[in-house]
Amino acid sequence: MRFFEATHKYPFEWEIVSLASFRKYPNDKTPHVQNVEVINQEVDPDTGVLKTERLIRVSQSAPRLVLKLLGGSESSYVLEYSEVDPKGKTLTMHSTNLTFSNLLKVGENVVYKPDLEDAGATLFVQSACLSADGALSRFSSYVEESCLKRFRDNASIGKLGLEQVLHRILNERQATSTAGI
């Protein structure tokens, strides 16, 4: 089992970062994300918390021989649950892989919340757990370490993608305000 943790401070308000998180895909920094579909979405009438369930399709770069042996395709799927609490100003996301989950489990947790020390900034806290099981358990150490490296690389690229979307949102807001809309 391998663990990943990262924190990052975005110099933007929580409302903008939360919006950007939902508008993150597609972007040119993460071309492996092919599609994002909202499966379910509801607002709790008592708390105002928005709960969303999304299915994310990504292309995987596993060797064709491995895909043939394991019966996979070039697309894999991730299920994501999120909760936006507008009163508490938190966005919490939990995701897990559906594809090959019998061989490798990847669980990710992300929290966006205002930085209490910097009113105009948002803290991003990310953690993940990767565990090779089943037929891969014999090679678990190698598989987990390899997947952890890819996860780290994708996490860095994901931050760049979110920053790109943040700047796009700010540009849209500026264009709207200068146009007098």
Report on the architecture of this protein.
This is Phospholipid metabolism protein. The protein has 3 helices and 7 strands; from the N terminus they run E-H-E-E-H-E-E-E-E-H. With 181 residues, it is an alpha+beta fold. It has one domain (2-178): Alpha-D-Glucose-1,6-Bisphosphate, Chain A, domain 4 (2-Layer Sandwich). A 7-stranded antiparallel beta sheet has the order 1-7-6-5-4-3-2. Strand 2 (33-43) and strand 3 (50-59) form a beta hairpin. Helix 1 packs across helix 3 (140-178).
In short:
The protein is of the alpha+beta class and 181 residues long. The protein has a single domain (2-178), classed as Alpha-D-Glucose-1,6-Bisphosphate, Chain A, domain 4. It is built from three helices and seven strands.
Strand order of the largest sheet: 1-7-6-5-4-3-2
CATH architecture: 2-Layer Sandwich
Instruction: Compute the number of strand runs.
Output: 7
Give the radius of gyration: 18 Å
Residue-averaged pLDDT, rounded? 88
Structural class: alpha+beta
What is the helix fraction of residues, given as a range?
A: 25-40%
Distance between the termini: 52 Å
CATH superfamily, by name, is START domain
Protein name: Phospholipid metabolism protein
